Amino acid sequence: MSTLTAGQIFVNLPVKDIKRTTTFFTALGFEFNPQFSNENTGCMVISEHIFVMLLEEARFKDFTKKDIVDASKGTEAILCLSATSREAVDELVNKAVAAGATTPNEVQDHGFMYGWGFEDLDGHLWELMYMDPSAFE
User: Where is the VOC domain (predicted)?
Assistant: First the structure.
């Protein structure tokens, strides 16, 4: 077992325009922590312990010597969040589409598990998933 005490996670993503990105995710209902946000960075709150640091590409480069992947052309990661219901999955994806996202994949319905996702304005892939707890009783 790891010796880390991972009480929180901060996912870091490069973005082209922090204002445009902040507007997009605010339209989906996410809030931003102003203490860790500025003209180059947005700290998006997913939950009490999960945050996404949205960093303009120049700021993101402060943390790596590697090239930044153009997420509209290649995939480095898929971010998957759990939802409270099938309806919550559909609601968030539909909000994302209304705010300018695309849906690169069809809904996946496996009975006990339901998922759908979107590609945000910078090409990052977000999946939403609901698993029916009664299927595991």
Answer: 7-131
The length of the chain is 137
Q: Which residue has the higher pLDDT, 27 or 72?
A: 27
Global confidence as pTM: 0.87
Structure tokens given for 121 = 């304005």
CA-based torsion, 65, 66, 72, 77: positive or negative: negative
Share of the chain above pLDDT 90, in %: 88
Task: Give SS3 for 32.
Answer: strand
Element (H, E) at 78: strand 78-82
Q: Is 27 helix (H, G, I), strand (E, B) or coil?
A: helix
Pull the structure tokens for residue 107: 């809904």
The CA-atom distances, in angstroms, between 19 and each of 39, 92, 132 are 8, 20, 36
For helices 86-98 and 18-27, give the axis angle rounded to 10 degrees: 140
Domains of the chain by range and CATH? 1-62 (3.10.180.10), 70-137 (3.10.180.10)
